[in-house]
Each structure stands twice: as structure tokens, then as C-alpha cells.
Amino acid sequence: MPKCPFCGKEIEYLYSWYQEVTRYIVSLDESGNIQWEQDFVSSSEPLDTELCPHCDQHIPMYDDPEKFLKEEYVVLRPDDPEIEVQRGNFVIFRGKVYKIDEDVSNTDLLILRLVEDELVADIIKTGAENSKMERCPNVPSAGRR
Q1: 29 vs 23, 34, 84, CA distance in Å?
Q2: Is 17 part of any domain?
Q3: Which H or E run includes 111?
Q4: Which 3 state secondary structure label does DSSP give 119?
Q5: pLDDT tens across 79-118, in order?
Q6: How do residues 7-43 score in pLDDT, each as one tens digit?
Q7: Residue 26's beta-bridge partner residues?
Q8: Contact call for residues 14 and 65 (beta carbons, < 8 A)
């Protein structure tokens, strides 16, 4: 389940605000009562979309909100404690490998996209695990590579 990069709470759903203009035909019926009949609805215009339901902060979406809810697209603070490893422009978060979208990430937020190629993800995970082992002096094979 994704989490809000601002309040840290897990998110099951997002608030998304849209505005549309509706035209009604307003008339009196045969009994003299007012009658409202929807005649036209304009295209929806997004207002402040994709808000956290817990803190109402706007979560930047550069992809489909469905991908965010499925954790195929993640928005995190760079110091998030659940980031297991950050190596170059790849991050291991909750056991999955993501690539940092450098076009939209900034110093305040990391925008991550799930690495779907399993071979690439496995290579990155293995490299990260090996680098952890090399830094651990208690592992007998650490210095013999």
C-alpha cells in the first residue's frame, strides 16, 4: 500500500477534485412546480487533484493515480526510512527496485518508477546486497573479491 510522502500514513485511496459546468433547463411543469432538467455537462477540469486523505497535501502525480495506488509509481522524501538502498539512480524500497525519474524529482521529493524488467531488478538487488556484504567486516568473504 502506498504512503503519503508528507504525513507518512498509508493510503488506500486519494481525493481528486474536478470541476465541471452543467447547464440545466429550468421550467415549470403542468402543476406549476419548478423542474430542473440537465441539458449539458462540460468537460471536467482538474482543480487540486490527488490529495492525501489523511493530511490533504497535494501528492505530485506525473503518472496515472492507479499506478501510484499499485506502488508502480512512488513519491517519497529522500530520507524516507523505508528506502533500503539507494545506488545511483536506483532505489530499493519495500523490497522492490525503482528507478528515480530524474526529470521530475527534486531535492524535496523522489519520484520513482518500478523497474518491471525482473532481470534488471535482480542484478540491481544482487549488486546492492554484495555492496552491503563488502562493508560488513564480520563476513568472512567480504575482503576476498
Answers
A1: 18, 6, 67
A2: no
A3: strand 110-114
A4: helix
A5: 999 999 888 899 999 999 999 998 887 778 999 999 999 8
A6: 999 999 999 888 888 899 999 999 999 999 999 888 7
A7: 36
A8: yes
Q: Please tell me the total count of domains within the chain.
A: 1
Residue 133 lies in a domain: yes
Instruction: Quote the cell numbers at residue 133.
Output: 556484504
Q: Please tell me the pTM assigned to this model.
A: 0.70
How many CB atoms within 10 Å of residue 94? 13
CA-to-CA separations, 107 to 33, 37, 89, 99, 112, in angstroms, rounded: 60, 51, 14, 16, 13
- Edge to edge, the sheet with strand 90-93 lists 73-76, 110-114, 96-100, 90-93, 83-87
Residues making up the chain, counted from first to last: 145
- Range of the structural domain that residue 101 is part of: 62-145
SS3 percent helix, strand, coil of the chain, rounded to 5, is 15, 30, 50
Residue 100 lies in a domain: yes
Amino acid at 21: V
* Dist CA 130 CA 128 (whole Å): 5
Q: Is residue 30 part of a domain?
A: no
